[in-house]
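batch_manifest entry 22 of 60
target: Alpha/beta hydrolase
source organism: Clostridium omnivorum
requested by: lab member K.T.
priority: normal
notes from requester: please return tokens only, no post-processing; we will run our own comparison against the previous entry in this batch. if the run fails, retry once and flag.
--- input ---
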Amino acid sequence: MNRLLDKVISGGIEQRILVRGISEQKPIILFLHGGPGLPMMPFHQHWTS
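--- output ---
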């Protein structure tokens, strides 16, 4: 499984994204959580396993 933690600039704000997967040929699912103050990164494997 490939993983990449990268930073992007969105709306002038630096954000961190985690990209993981088995194949680059598969579609990407973008998960946006509900707001500031509760990062979902520690729980990502619960929804993507």
